[in-house]
Amino acid sequence: MSGLTSLVQAGGVLEKKxxxxxxxxxxxxxxxxxxxxxxxxxxxxxxxxxxxxxxEENFLSHEYLDQYxxxxxxxxxxxxxxxxxxTGRFRDTGNELDLALENEGFFSISTxxxxxxxxxxxxxxxxxGRMVTQDGFPLLGKKGPIQIKGxxxxxxxxxxxxxVEGTVLDQLKTVRFRNQDQLQKLGNHFYAPIRSxxxxxxxxxxxxxxxxxxxxNVNTVLEMSRMITATRxxxxxxxxxxxxxxxxxxxxxxxxVS
Length: 258
Hints:
With 258 residues, the chain is α+β, with helices and mostly antiparallel strands. It folds into two domains: 3-85 and 218-257, no CATH class; 90-214, no CATH class. Helix content is 29%, strand content 27%. The chain is built from four helices and 19 strands. The strands form eight sheets. The chain has a four-stranded antiparallel beta sheet with strand order 6-5-14-17, with no helix packed on it. The chain has a three-stranded antiparallel beta sheet with strand order 11-12-13, with no helix packed on it. Strand 5 (106-111) and strand 6 form a beta hairpin. Helix 1 (3-26) packs antiparallel against helix 4 (220-257). Belongs to the flagella basal body rod proteins family. InterPro entries: Flag_bb_rod_N, Flagellar_basal_body_rod_CS, Flagellar_FlgE/F/G, Flg_bb/hook_C_dom, FlgE/F/G-like, FlgF, LlgE_F_G-like_D1. Residues 100-163 form the Flagellar hook protein FlgE/F/G-like D1 domain. Keywords: Bacterial flagellum, Cell projection, Cilium, Flagellum. Residues 209-253 form the Flagellar basal-body/hook protein C-terminal domain.
């Protein structure tokens, strides 16, 4: 593996790291947002491993990238962008349409593309009296979209039962997944299972809180630290590529003269 190839691959890894951290920081105030975490995998097997041939390759394979892969490797690449599903901070709002899930689980949402799932509980009422997301997609109950009837206050208990003036209208369809880490992130803060057999599982253990919102679980101080580290390392990669390119030009010039 050439020094330039190693440098380009490392630059791609760092670019993805910077992009991921930037997205996390941009969503630090987004309700229910779960931070992304890139994971890496080895490009070459132990048998195929190439000994670093330059100081630049040695730096990339042993000093910086070890922080992410945990062992010496000749080169790494981004394997996938994982999700950190730890619960975010809770904020009291007093708004009867704001809901939060105290433990693992998701609200079920109806969309034109099918059922989607979210942790963002900042709902509102549309013109038809349905509880919907900020983008207008209906929140689902066991009977279908949650339809509010009556002008009294809306009560949602910890089991997800929705009532108006003491009359229970429906119960929220809150679900879990066996392979939560395998959910794919979509737009509008939605998730969906990657595999068709990973079906949502209704659970009575999911606790609903009314008048509370779950904030993003992004640690801004940690993400800023990651951004600084990745940016500095990317600058070192760029410098190493420039130096290597300069050496190649000198070698070509010398070979022509000789």
